[in-house]
TrEMBL record:
It comes from the Eukaryota. SMART domains: EGF_CA. It is a single-pass membrane protein. The keyword Transmembrane helix does not apply. Residues 305-347 form the EGF-like calcium-binding domain. Gene3D superfamilies: Laminin. It holds the Pfam family GUB_WAK_bind. Residues 1-17 form the signal peptide. This is EGF-like calcium-binding domain-containing protein. GO terms for cellular component: membrane. Keywords: Disulfide bond, Signal.
Length: 488
């Protein structure tokens, strides 16, 4: 018997150890000491990684290799140098070497056909790139596809004019420069020059304006046409014969978020506060942090709360800022109301004397009610607190105020055994709060504690009590909670 028990315990702990081992083998913690998180000044966030198996999600492995400029990260074991990773967009920036060129030497013309192919998680970005041709009289074609050039497009950079006088900085609009977009969702492309004379009937000599033309699929935002690009080799030389390019990636072993979430074990969005986003570049998905969080959604606890109050430039607040998990509260200072996110919008509360009195009466009545019923009972059901916290006391809601006052005084006059139960009071108050005039005019609540309670001679008040959390400016639980003594 005893032995059996021991054996059982042993088996259980053995199973536990085996389980731990298995988990460890599947996913050694990203960011463990043997995984590099940077190479050549480029940050490498998970799911990307450099190091032994497990440092990266399959397909997202990088290598850190020596180049003429020191160590640089490369996609996989290939020749695309990684310039940067953007997790929220599902993009990487890479350097594309060997810009295609078409040079007319007096004796012969030289060209090359450039074939480019990305491995699986990567796709050519349609939005981020543009096919660009510079030169005076050059026609270049780009063919996009996966296994072969399925979609052909291209453009012609036309005559630059005598000594390039048809060119203008910043104007890539035909003369000396042209651009076109590519189809989205593919992983390979081919660039090729075509003999200009087969497209345009022109025998004019261009040799003394520009000897070489260039063509590249490249990041659109990093191209700004200069006249010197068409008349010299400056475009080629600007980045040492390479151009920046945007490549999109996604976790592609599930076709979309819905499919991915069916298999929690391989679901990549492991952070608590992460959300799944369908890939815009083919099958698959990427992970983002939920609104109000930032960090790395591919890591456990990777998405952290943003303290909006510490970033007033991004999250303007001209009142009292309070950070809350996932969002923040920006409220007007005591005694004012308005939209505290707008500078100068918090206005002093001005009440008509009628409202003032009404509020005084209802507040007094409610205070008395609470005193009579006892705090414990009044607080037992949060509903009441919530209701008082909301918009009952509003200039536009005189009917409500009046009704509440009547309700409160009823509670006071009837004997203890027949007075309305708290439940009933709460229900009535709830109905009042839901009345059209309250709902249609959601206003920031007033701050009762600043108002005069004069004329309530029978009660004395003191403030105290602090407790749990309710939102809003005026919270009975938070502040100005009154304890009452009735004069006998
Ligand atoms: C790191 O690599 C060394 C040598 O290969 C190995 O002994 C060690 O266990 C590894 N550490 C981790 C955390 O994987
Ligand atoms: C660029 O071209 C050179 C010479 O033609 C070649 O040696 C090199 O491998 C090419 N680089 C890439 C990244 O294709
Ligand atoms: C063109 O060919 C001639 C004769 O073969 C040679 O002398 C000349 O240097 C070449 N020009 C160029 C630009 O290569
Ligand atoms: C090219 O140079 C030749 C002689 O140097 C000149 O006659 C011709 O006009 C020039 N062409 C252009 C387009 O500038
Ligand atoms: C090209 O233009 C020239 C003169 O402008 C003309 O004689 C010739 O027929 C044209 N060629 C073609 C193929 O259109
Ligand atoms: C190359 O340049 C020569 C001389 O400048 C010119 O005659 C020839 O038409 C040019 N070839 C092409 C394909 O532009
Ligand atoms: C998806 O990839 C994860 C690792 O990235 C792997 O564990 C899982 O088995 C794969 N799922 C499918 C359906 O291929
Ligand atoms: C992702 O795509 C699937 C299939 O088209 C769709 O049902 C789902 O609503 C999408 N999910 C998100 C988060 O966009
Ligand atoms: C407050 O102003 C901001 C900025 O104009 C606006 O986005 C927000 O919706 C406003 N809030 C309310 C409650 O009107
Ligand atoms: C509080 O009041 C609501 C609404 O009447 C009711 O549904 C709920 O059960 C009450 N809760 C407690 C703890 O009495
Ligand atoms: C206070 O806020 C915490 C965290 O949001 C929540 O778990 C708790 O239930 C709240 N307490 C009350 C009384 O609302």
């Amino acid at each position: 018997m005893q032995l059996q028990k021991l054996a059982a315990i042993f088996l259980v702990s053995l199973g536990h150890a085996a389980l731990l081992g298995a988990v460890g083998a599947l996913a050694p913690p990203p960011g463990s000491s043997n995984c590099s998180t940077a190479c050549g000044g480029v940050d490498i966030p998970y799911p990307f990684g450099i190091g032994p198996a497990g440092c990266a999600l399959p397909g997202f492995e990088l290598t850190c290799r020596d180049t003429n400029n020191g160590k640089k990260p490369f996609l996989g074991h290939g020749h695309f140098e990684l310039a940067g990773v953007s997790l929220p967009d599902g993009q990487v920036h890479v350097w594309k070497y060997n810009i295609s060129s078409y040079c007319n030497d007096t004796n012969n013309t030289q060209t090359n056909v450039d074939v480019v192919r990305f491995a699986d998680p990567y796709r050519i970005s349609q939005a981020g790139n543009v096919f660009t041709v510079v030169g005076c009289k050059a026609v270049a074609i780009i063919g996009v596809g996966d296994d072969f050039a399925r979609f052909l497009s291209g453009c012609a950079a036309t005559n630059c004019g005598r000594h390039g006088d048809r060119l203008a900085d910043g104007a890539c609009s035909g003369a000396g420069c042209c651009q076109t977009t590519v189809t989205k969702g593919y992983s390979a492309y081919v660039v090729e020059f075509t003999d200009y004379s087969t497209v345009f009937n022109s025998s004019k000599d261009i040799y003394n304006v520009s000897r070489c033309s260039y063509a590249a699929l490249m990041e659109s935002s990093s191209f700004d046409f200069q006249t010197s690009y068409a008349t010299s080799s400056e475009f080629f030389d600007a980045n040492g014969g390479r151009v920046p390019m945007v490549v999109e990636w996604a976790v592609r072993n599930a076709s979309n978020c819905v499919e991915a979430q069916k298999n929690r074990d391989s679901y990549a969005c492991v952070s608590m506060n992460s959300v799944c986003v369908n890939s815009s570049s083919g099958p698959g998905y990427i992970c983002n942090c939920a609104k109000g969080f930032d960090g790395n959604p591919y890591l456990r606890n990777g998405c952290q709360d943003i303290d909006e109050c510490k970033e007033p430039k991004k999250y303007p607040c001209y009142g009292n800022c309070k950070n809350i998990l996932g969002y923040f509260d920006c409220t007007c200072p005591k005694g004012t109301r308005g939209n505290a996110s707008v500078e100068g919008a918090c206005q002093k509360i001005i009440l008509t004397s009628g409202t003032r009195i009404a509020i005084g009466v209802v507040a007094g009545a409610l205070v008395a009610l609470f005193g009579f019923l006892g705090w414990e009972e009044a607080m037992a059901n949060d509903t009441l607190v919530e209701l008082l916290d909301s918009d009952i006391v509003d200039e536009a809601s005189m009917r409500v105020i009046h009704h509440a006052a009547v309700l409160a005084s009823q509670c006071l006059v009837v004997p203890g055994t027949t007075r309305p139960t708290m439940m009933l009071v709460a229900t009535e108050l709830r109905q009042l709060a839901q009345a059209d005039e309250v709902q249609q005019r959601p206003q920031p609540p007033l701050v009762l504690e600043d108002l005069s309670f004069a004329g309530m001679g029978r009660t004395s008040m003191s403030t105290s009590y602090s407790g749990s959390n309710t939102s809003g400016v005026y919270s009975i639980q938070k502040k100005a909670v009154l304890s009452i003594e009735f004069a006998r």
